[in-house]
Design goal:
This protein is α/β, with parallel strands linked by helices. The chain is built from 5 helices and 5 strands; from the N terminus they run E-H-E-H-E-E-E-H-H-H. The radius of gyration is 14 Å and the shape is globular.
């Protein structure tokens, strides 16, 4: 298992070692033993560029996932582009871009900590890599429940 954390923003100081440990714990909780995962922490300007270039959406967003496993390797995922059906034995391979500026805004809006929002985005990205889809309301609710469950589990450990 290989998890690489890259901090490409200057808005907040990031404890990369802790984020890597939390991510490793999340992968263990999900029983994922074979993973190649990059987590990029970026500012709103870079996230806007990624969002507009790859998803053709205006402005910044909280998280974008690129799945490098299987036939969907070049296809990024935001809230609406993932499909189910990842092969059971295929390694988890992808890259998650999380926007720290968006995490700060969402934390203020929902009365949480920006660090918790970053973890939520990592969970969300990994769930997309596992084939979860949030493009329809029922699927979105299921994914959100799983996201919340995993966030609670990690909060209990960290």
């Amino acid at each position: 298992m290989n998890v690489v954390i890259v901090n490409r923003q200057r808005t907040q100081k990031i404890n990369s070692r802790l984020l890597k440990n939390i991510t490793a714990s999340l992968l263990a909780e999900l029983k994922i033993k074979n993973a190649e995962l990059g987590i990029n922490l970026v500012a709103a300007t870079e996230m806007t560029l990624i969002n507009e270039t790859f998803l053709r959406h205006k402005g910044s967003t909280d998280v974008i996932t690129f799945d490098y496993a299987g036939a969907r390797a070049a296809r990024p995922s935001e809230a609406k582009t993932r499909t189910r059906g990842r092969a059971a034995r295929a390694p988890l391979s992808g890259e998650i871009f999380t926007c720290v500026d968006e995490a700060i805004l969402q934390a203020r809006k929902y009365g949480t900590r920006w660090e918790s929002e970053i973890i939520r985005y990592v969970i969300h990205g990994i769930l997309h890599l596992l084939g979860h889809d949030d493009s329809r309301p029922a699927a979105r609710r299921r994914m959100k429940r799983e996201e919340n469950r995993l966030l609670r589990r990690l909060a209990g450990k960290f």
